[in-house]
Amino acid sequence: MLDSFLSAFYEACQKNNLKLTPQRVEVYKELVKFNDHPSVTKIYKRVKQKFPNISFDTVNRTLQLFVEIGVAKLVEGVQDIRRYDGVTKRHNHFHCLKCNKIIDIYDERLDKIEIPKDLYEKLSIIDTKIVFNGLCEKCKK
Question: Tell me: domain 2-85, CATH 1.10.10.10, correct?
């Protein structure tokens, strides 16, 4: 699975004339490895183990760059903390209000919800996403 993510990553970098540095590759690997919608801080701590001299700012700018070239998405902030998603396939999220875990939800029925016509007339809607808030299975017990 990681291989297919990496192939798409390499292709996007090449298409956008983005140099493939070992640090960028490692940041991307840590983003997609666990699919846990990590924050910059979490990725920084993981990458720093392999690249002790990497700065927080470098990781932060790298993740923003990944969003710009389409290999990552910014997930809704939880308590003003930006979290990232390496899965760019269309999906929605569930956010646990107790443990702050973010869970991917793949359900085609959610993609079929019609947006009111008057919103399209007033606004320029580029994308839609649904975020469910509540308690995950573990916290619900």
Answer: yes
Looking at residue 120, its pLDDT comes to 83
Q: What is this structure's pTM?
A: 0.84
Q: How far apart are the C-alpha atoms of 64 and 105, rounded to whole Å?
A: 23
Mean pLDDT along residues 117-122: 89
Q: State the Cα–Cα distance between residues 92 and 103, nearest whole angstrom.
A: 8
7-47 confidence digits (pLDDT tens): 999 999 999 999 999 999 999 999 999 889 999 999 999 99
CA distance 84 to 113: 25
**Which token pair is 27?**
């940041």
CA–CA separation, 70 vs 8, rounded Å? 10
In sequence order, which ranges of the chain are alpha helices (DSSP H)? 2-15, 22-33, 40-50, 56-69, 108-111, 117-122, 137-140
* CATH of span 92-140: 3.30.1490.190
